Each structure stands twice: as structure tokens, then as C-alpha cells.
User: Which sequence fits this backbone?
């Protein structure tokens, strides 16, 4: 297998525990755009935040990721098959899937090679989908503290983050585009769950490696001052969705 920029294997357990799951509105949109629902390919699936949800609308889901550590922590489902494989060389047969979807993953791909692979694997008339989200949104003083933390760690994101920041503007799909309505992803979390999510960010890991945990500890203290223990609050993300008909 070709080498890849592995930002998440060391964080796999936390990634599985704290990354948000995608809403039913997204899986419904993806399924509704597909004429057939035999096989979906979840590309760069991580620990399966979308994979099991796709199984509610597709007979079979093949979920691939190049990091075996991520797959080891993935959510199990009888119609989901996890495989360790890169996005650019899936090992799937030609014209074998109805949907290829990359959720919060395409910015790490070798983009030209992935486009060729998706064109090979997706059936004519099938759908290729990209989903991404930027910063988490939270109201009140806690939200302001989160904005400050995002600002401080911004220089530590890996290079692929530029595509997230510009909402995948430069990741062009060479097939006819399909319309996608705005969809919001939400999670109801305690303060500790939000901090757990923050520790899954590649930028947080790189920031801590370079400068220690003082800034993260400061964020914990600031959040604790305005957010009581065990109080659930809503965290939201605006999804960017790009769809194309193969």
C-alpha cells in the first residue's frame, strides 16, 4: 500500500468516541440521488461515523480507510464491510458501486488519482459525493472561547485543511453536478465531550506536540467557568455537500 499522511491512527480510540455522526438528512439525500441502492462505498471512512447510517438505505456498504487503527474502532453493522485500503486504490471492481461518498476525508486524498478511481468504481449513472464541515458552532461565552481556540491553533492544521476552509471549492468533480440543500449536523454534548472532540483534531495534536498542553488546559478551565458539569448543550456544524452524477 502506498504511504499516506496518517494524522489519526494515534487518535483512533478518541476519534471513534468523540467524532460527531452524520444526520439522517444526509443519508436520505445521498440515497435519494441514487437510482439504485445496492452498494455504497464510504471512502476514507475513519471509524465509521457515516458507514452504519448508509446501511439503513443501501443493501451493502463497503467502507475503506488506509488506517487500520481507525477500522479497529469502527462501529459494526451486519451490512457494513470495513477494508483497509487507500481512496486512490480501493481494490473494488469496475462499475461496482451506486454511490461513492467521502465524508470529511477528501481533503487528504491524492485528488487526481482519486477522481480516476471513483470514475472506475462508480457505475454510470451513480453518484460521487463529497461532504465536509468547518468549525463547530456553539452559542454564548463557551462559543466565543471555542472561536479563540480555533484561531490559536490555525497554523497547526496540516496542508489539506485549506480545502476544508474553502468548502472544497478546488476539489472539482468532472461529472455533471447535482443540487444539494443545506444540511446542518448537530450533537448534544457535555463540556467534557466537546473537549474530547477537540483532542481528535490533527491541529490540536500538532499544537500539543510543539507547545505542550497549556493552551488546551486553559480552554478546559475557561469552559468550566461558564459551562456546568454534565450540562448538555447543542454543538452544530454546517455541512458542505458536493454531488455529481457519474
Assistant:
Amino acid at each position: 500500500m502506498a504511504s499516506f499522511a496518517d494524522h489519526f491512527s494515534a487518535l483512533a480510540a478518541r476519534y471513534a468516541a468523540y467524532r460527531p455522526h452524520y444526520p439522517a438528512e444526509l443519508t436520505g439525500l445521498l440515497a435519494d440521488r441514487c437510482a439504485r441502492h445496492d452498494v455504497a462505498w464510504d471512502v476514507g471512512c475513519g471509524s465509521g461515523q457515516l458507514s452504519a447510517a448508509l446501511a439503513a438505505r443501501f443493501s451493502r456498504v463497503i467502507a475503506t480507510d488506509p488506517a487500520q487503527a481507525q477500522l479497529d474502532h469502527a462501529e459494526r453493522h451486519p451490512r457494513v464491510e470495513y477494508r483497509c485500503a487507500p481512496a486512490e486504490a480501493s481494490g473494488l471492481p469496475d462499475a461496482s458501486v451506486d454511490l461513492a461518498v467521502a465524508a470529511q476525508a477528501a481533503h487528504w486524498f491524492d485528488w487526481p488519482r482519486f477522481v480516476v478511481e471513483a470514475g472506475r468504481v462508480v457505475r454510470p449513472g451513480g453518484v460521487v459525493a463529497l461532504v465536509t464541515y468547518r468549525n463547530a458552532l456553539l452559542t454564548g461565552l463557551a462559543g466565543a472561547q471555542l472561536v479563540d481556540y480555533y484561531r490559536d491553533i490555525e497554523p497547526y492544521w496540516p496542508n489539506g485543511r485549506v480545502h476544508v476552509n474553502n468548502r472544497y471549492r478546488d476539489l472539482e468533480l468532472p461529472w455533471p453536478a447535482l443540487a444539494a440543500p443545506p444540511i446542518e449536523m448537530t450533537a448534544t454534548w457535555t463540556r467534557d465531550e466537546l473537549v474530547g472532540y477537540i483532542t481528535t483534531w490533527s491541529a490540536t495534536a500538532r499544537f500539543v506536540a510543539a507547545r505542550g498542553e497549556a493552551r488546551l488546559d486553559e480552554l478546559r478551565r475557561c469552559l468550566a467557568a461558564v459551562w456546568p458539569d454534565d450540562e448538555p448543550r447543542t454543538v452544530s456544524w454546517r455541512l458542505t455537500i458536493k454531488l455529481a452524477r457519474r
Summary: The chain has ten helices and eight strands. The chain has one domain: 9-245. Residues 140-153 form the longest helix (14 residues). The chain has a mean pLDDT of 94.
